[in-house]
Amino acid sequence: GEGTSASTATTASLLATSGNDRVIMVYDAESRKKLCELRGHDHVIESLAFLTCAATSAADAPKSATKLTPEERRRKEEIRDYLASGSRDRTVKLWSIKAASCLMSFESHENWVRGVLIHPNGKFLISCGDDKSIRVYDIKANRCLRTIDGAHSHFVTSIAMHHTLPVLVSGGVDQSVKCWQLD
């Protein structure tokens, strides 16, 4: 597809790409086989994020464990199934890779969405954008739970979450980096 910009996200076994064509392509990283195409954004997709299983499985696994139990393996596969996207169409979407469909869409940003992530606990989506805000969405309740308006004095362009602590870091065009406590 057409592309002068691209967004990528990876896990140990998956790769997702997107760009100006508004289509997300998900591939098996080992076989390089395309698993699905996800369509639903009306503008360029700026950001993609998988729910990574590294943090959740590492935090939950006993220190002496070297093999995954069947339950851990099932949980890891479930976690691997979700992808978040943020777009210039002002939406944040949560996708099921297995079903190749959009599970939910949030339209609360007032300008382009620049960054998305799925909280390591799998319960929240977090986004940032050109409206200078950071938003936290409750996946189970399917609603915006918290908005940090004026998080930066200019566009908020990136976010990252600590894997075990409730700490979010954001960066913006204002050339500042800020830490946020998410309780």
From TrEMBL:
It holds the Pfam family WD40. PROSITE patterns: WD_REPEATS_2 (PS50082), WD_REPEATS_REGION (PS50294). GO terms for molecular function: U4 snRNA binding; U6 snRNA binding. It comes from Helicotheca tamesis. WD repeats lie at residues 82-105, 106-147, 149-183. PANTHER family: PRE-MRNA PROCESSING FACTOR 4, WD40 REPEAT PROTEIN. This is Uncharacterized protein. One of its GO terms (cellular component) is U4/U6 x U5 tri-snRNP complex. The keyword Repeat applies. Keywords: Repeat, WD repeat. GO terms for biological process: mRNA splicing, via spliceosome. It comes from the Eukaryota.
